[in-house]
Amino acid sequence: MASKTYCWALIDAIHEEMSRDETVVLLGEDVAEAGGAFGASRTLLESFGPRRVRDTPISEEIIVGLGVGAAMTGKRPIVEIMFMDFLGLCLDQIFNQAAKTHYIYSGAFKMPLVIRTSTAVEMGIGPHHSQLLESWLGHVPGLKVVMPSTPRDAKGLMKAAIRDDNPVVFIEHLAMHRVKEDIEDDDFVIPIGKADVKRKGRDVTVVATGLQVARALAAADELAKDGIEIEVIDPRTISPLDIDTIVESVKKTNRALVVTSSLKPFGFGSEVSAEITERAFFHLDAPVARLTPPFAPAPFGKKFDAWLNPNAESIAASVRSLLG
């Protein structure tokens, strides 16, 4: 066991997979000489050289297109799009090329492509760098979308994503890059599409993603002082969604709250809420609740960001409201 940050857990995962499989390559802006814009590819150029760790031009469409072509011709590319907000510049390559290639060629081509991207929710850097757009991606058949909330999950899911023969969008929360956790030294892979029950409880099911998982756990500690036990579920994978684990929890607790850092209209929380209602309607003692930021662009300034987003206090308040 060793204590690793979220950032170093990702570096370790990529290093191990590049050592295991010579077809794995890393491409993106500043991933080589600079060691990544956020330090998340440090040591990789020194270990594997410029043929496998390559800086690219500042063109998101070219970066993903390069990855698509490399995947079709035998490589397992990891491409980095620095901020999730920039996905709009390469949506055609993601939605119409990466996601559809396997299908339109009747399975003749695999698409073992990992698209790394980061969200800077609650870092105070404004509307062009702070969006969480996982719902866009989850709407596309052919894409897998993962969003780990802990260093161990980040490492295990990155290894799974690299080994997968389908395109995987891997969403990292920059605000968690310095979070530490003890991680075992042996090779382990966390399966894509399997949720994790972070805390068991009997009174309310709280489905939380990304940055909100730790806050839901903090809320659970506070609520426990009053005898309220919430079950905290981290989907870890946005698509495919492990709805069975969520529904089984709701059948036990009879109440559900979905907490995300992304917006409410047409979002991930809406999808989870609809699935619970369709599959567990007669087990519900209250309507499924959603807790999200307001439907507005992210402001500049950490104080505003923290005020607008869900936190342990607002999660606890929402749970109390569900319980009447």
UniProtKB/TrEMBL annotation:
<keyword id="KW-0560">Oxidoreductase</keyword>
<dbReference type="InterPro" id="IPR033248">
    <property type="entry name" value="Transketolase_C"/>
</dbReference>
<dbReference type="InterPro" id="IPR029061">
    <property type="entry name" value="THDP-binding"/>
</dbReference>
<dbReference type="Pfam" id="PF02780">
    <property type="entry name" value="Transketolase_C"/>
</dbReference>
<feature type="domain" description="Transketolase-like pyrimidine-binding">
    <location>
        <begin position="4"/>
        <end position="179"/>
    </location>
</feature>
<dbReference type="GO" id="GO:0016491">
    <property type="term" value="F:oxidoreductase activity"/>
</dbReference>
<dbReference type="InterPro" id="IPR009014">
    <property type="entry name" value="Transketo_C/PFOR_II"/>
</dbReference>
<dbReference type="Pfam" id="PF02779">
    <property type="entry name" value="Transket_pyr"/>
</dbReference>
<keyword id="KW-0786">Thiamine pyrophosphate</keyword>
<dbReference type="InterPro" id="IPR005475">
    <property type="entry name" value="Transketolase-like_Pyr-bd"/>
</dbReference>
<protein>
    <submittedName>
        <fullName>Alpha-ketoacid dehydrogenase subunit beta</fullName>
        <ecNumber>1.2.4.-</ecNumber>
    </submittedName>
</protein>
